[in-house]
Amino acid sequence: MIPIQGTQGRKTLVEEGTSFKGSLSSTCPVEVKGRVEGDVTAPALSVSASGSVHGKVKVGEMQSHGELSGEFDADVVQLQGSVKDRTIIRAKSLEVKLSPAEGKMQVVFGECQLEVGSEAARDAAARSNEKVPKGPTVPPDGAKVSDVAKAASVRPPTDANGA
Amino acid sequence: MPELTADLVLKKIKIGEKVERADLRGLVLTRAVLDGASFRRCDLDGANLEGARLSKALFKNASLREAFLAGADLREANLESADLEGANLLGAKLTGANLNRANLEGANLQGAELSGARLTHAQLESATLGGARLIRAELAHADLSETDLSTAKLDEADLTSTDLSGANLEEASLVRAQLRDAMLRGATLLRADLSGADLRRANLSGARLEGALFTGARVRGLVGTGAPVVGIRGEWVDDSEEASRVVRVTGAQIAELLSGMTPSMPLHKRYFGRGDVLRNAHLEFDTGAAVEIESLFEHCTIALGEGTELVVGKGGTLSGCQIQGPGRITIHGKFVEREGPGIVGATQLIVSAEGSLVGAVEQATELTRFGFEPGCYLRVQILQAKKERSTKSGRQS
Question: B307 and B212 share a domain?
């Protein structure tokens, strides 16, 4: 583990081939190219494709291309690579880019849990939806409600959001 | 015979004198150090400046027809309105150069570095730019007809209203390039990357698009190829006028849109409008259907066929529902499950920035492709496909 002086300031680097076990608390960003097992606290965590982090992590920003397992708390998360079973990711914001249909998966999820966004943000979004005036059903050109749908229970407009 | 000899030119430049309006035709100044020199309005037709250092040099209105400038360093040089017809600029460094209104007809710019260069209204007809780097270059209104831009890097370049008729853009990278109102009639875009490119009102008639990637491209108002489009790649394109209100078009509709031809299966589209409420319904949508929901669905079960598109629009809410089957789901609105897993076997699941998903997702056997945009709300438990899970638990016991 080497604190390195880069062009954008200091960061702690766990180099490829290095395995670290225990608690790691840092005031500068942490970059993991090797393996970390344990608790990590830092302003930012970057896990490269060769890197893996297993444990409890609390960071401001997290960007992962490697392997994650454990409990991750962060404000902003950008995810690629893999998320193993029994992992929990809590974040205010999560970004997972969609992989092309024929290409490699951006993220492979095991059995895991995602808790993303605050309740307050969701409630605000819901309120803004409620303000949208209700209108009649106007299918676009060429569209039609399926026969099955027509047969289902349909009643006149009441509350589009079910609030 | 040139008006000045090479030695005299070098001497003048060394003492800071300008060499302007001089007849320097055929002059040989290979690898000369001429940074910041002024050759304004000079006649340098056929001159040999191979490998010369000419950064920040001034060639405004100069004539450099058939000049040999291979490997020359012309970074931030001013070549505005210069005549470079047939010039050889192979591998030249032109980063940040000003080539506005320059004539580069038939010039050889293979492998040249033109990132950030300004080429508005430039004439590049039949020029060779294979492998050139034009990242963030300004090319608005330039004539690039019949140019070879194969494998060129044009990411974030401004190509607004350019003429790219008959141009070869095979395997070119045009990520987030501005191609609004561009003329691409008969252009070759085989395996080009147009992710996030702005193609609004561009003309693609007769263009070849096989293998091209269009994810996130803006396509409102474009003129299609006029023939069936096959083999294109892309998860979705944006058919909105304003970037702030993305209208995603997915699946087979992308090809239809790019071809400009009437959709072949319009009856496969299903739409549930705002204000409708469906309760306790069981809905089945066959393979190839495109379903959009802007309504409130309560306690409904939705079965999707292979590749069926299901879009929960911004106004749509699926409360206490379950979606099953190998479809592609996009959530701009809300999905809340009644009992888990709320989504089973989807091949693709996108939750956009405005979307909200609460529930368990059982992945497809071959794994689900996920896309989550920043701003989305998730309380999600991701599960493996049932078969996978039982195999795992069997292994554990």
Answer: no
Q: Is A144 on the interface with B (CB under 8 A)?
A: yes
Question: B143, B158, B191: which is the final residue of a domain?
Answer: B143
Q: Is residue A77 in a domain?
A: yes
The answer for residues whose C-beta is within 8 angstroms of residue B354's C-beta and 6 or more apart is A125, B314, B332, B333, B375, B376
**Same domain membership, residue B125 and residue B258:** no
Same domain (yes/no): B119, B63: yes
**For position B123, which CATH number holds?**
2.160.20.80
Contact B384/A117, CB-based, under 8 Å? no
Q: By residue range, what is the domain housing residue A23?
A: 2-118
28-87 in A: which are within 8 Å (CB) of B?
Answer: 76, 79
**CB within 8 Å of chain A, chain B residues 109-168:** none
Backbone angles phi, psi at B304, to 5 degrees: -110, 135
Q: Is residue A81 in a domain?
A: yes
CA angle A26, A27, A30 (to 5 degrees): 55
Q: Say if residue B121 is in the same domain as residue B210.
A: no
| Nearest alpha carbon to residue B306 among B366, B266, B255 | B366
What pLDDT score was predicted for residue B99?
A: 97
- Which of B317, B319, B375 lies at the smallest CB-CB distance from A93? B375
Say whether A124 sits in a helix, a strand or coil. helix
| Cβ(B217)–Cβ(B199) below 8 Å | yes
B264, B280, B305: which is the final residue of a domain?
A: B264
Q: Which residues contact A52 (CB under 8 A, 6 or more apart)?
A: A32, A35, A36, A66, A67, A68, A69
Same domain, B276 and B219: no
Could you tell me if residue B51 is inside a domain? yes
Record: contact A96-B372, CB cut-off 8 A: yes
Q: How many CB atoms lie within 10 A of CB A62?
A: 27
Q: Which of A114, A118, A141 to mutate to test the interface with B (most CBs of B within 10 A)?
A: A114
Total number of domains constituting chain A: 1
Hey, what amino acid is at A151? A
Per residue in A85-133, pLDDT (tens digit) is 999 999 999 999 876 555 567 789 999 999 999 766 556 555 544 443 3
Q: Are residues B100 and B218 in the same domain?
A: no
Contact, B286 vs B309, CB < 8 A? no
Smallest Cβ–Cβ distance between B356 and the set A76, A107, A122 belongs to: A122
Residue B282: count other Cβ atoms within 10 Å of its Cβ.
Answer: 12
The boundaries of the domain holding residue B139 are 1-143
pLDDT tens-digit map of B358-391: 999 999 988 898 989 899 999 999 999 876 555 5
Structurally, chain B folds into a number of domains equal to 3
ipTM: 0.75
Which of A72, A71, A77 has the alpha carbon at shortest distance from A93?
A77
